[in-house]
Fold this sequence. Notes:
Blueprint: E1 3-12, E2 15-24, E3 27-29, H1 36-51, E4 54-58, E5 67-73, E6 76-82, E7 88-92, E8 99-105, E9 110-114, E10 117-121, E11 126-130, E12 135-139, E13 144-151, H2 152-155, H3 159-162, E14 169-170, H4 175-189, E15 193-194, H5 195-207, H6 209-218, H7 227-239, H8 248-255, H9 259-268, H10 273-291, H11 298-304, H12 310-321, H13 325-331
Amino acid sequence: MCTNRFWTIANINRKDRFIPMEIIRPLKLGTISLPDAESRLVCRTILLDMLGEATITVDEGDLGGVTGLFWKHVDLSLATLYLPKTPLRLTANGIGTPGIVILRATDGPMIVHHRQQVFTLASRDVILLPADTSSEIVLPDGGRFDCAHLPHSAIAPLQKSLDRLLLRKFHAECLPLQLLTNYAGYLLRQDHQDKDHASMMVAHFYSLLPVLAQEVAENPSVPDLPQNRVESIKALIEANLADGSFSIADVAKVEGITPRAIQKIFSRTGTTFSRYVLERRLVLAKTMILSDTASRPISQIVYSVGFNDLSYFNRTFRSRYGIRPTDLRRMSGQTGDA
């Protein structure tokens, strides 16, 4: 717990004596000069008890200059990290004990991969996840990332209500959600609270969770997009990944909509058309490199999944996976040069 002990003087029966008062302060972290290695250590330390062992991958640049706030109570942990405004990916292993984490990105969309499910959230939307399982969190625009950890000991009395909240996304306009985030913001912004005051605020925070569950029961969420249109576009992309000339104009022609409309669809899912196609081609290339029993030259694989430039593929592959294609094949026990 982030606490300091202050001593106050009270006059009782005409005798002065010191009475300890426990103070809980938010931890303010980082400066604009904090280098990459120290920023990573700060992020890892803060997230360790909330998301488990976490690794942050930045597409461009590094994590230098991370700032934020961290607040910890026995029944609730809160963190706000101001990450670089560049695409980044956070991979967390989970903490290994039951509990709930609440996640939010405020400077852009957030994509959460949890087991076999993918959740795409708009800026300031919120999702609740089990704390004891691994997940991957993608922030296409980087920026502010909010996280709260609710330990099992605190949520056990509310377990029945909370079951319906897990693995759901909540829009920022949801009133009970706004109250929750306001309480969290209050605790993070206050210079200090005594323990009793902090415990009272935490109790209020938890009292809002059944209200949020009731909101779900009365107003079940509806899909953000016509799912058949999204799946149709993705299926068309999968069928044409090998075609290096395949473009958004081809999709627009088949779907009977404008390229701008397609861009809006992908924007609402937290990515762009070109970024999605690139990601799918990289995934396919990686799968083929690892599983190709004939050990075809990597260059042949590259062109077969729609890349037209070998150097560009090598660069983007290493940026995405942190390893060169040739090294990945070598580690898998195969041969074959790029």
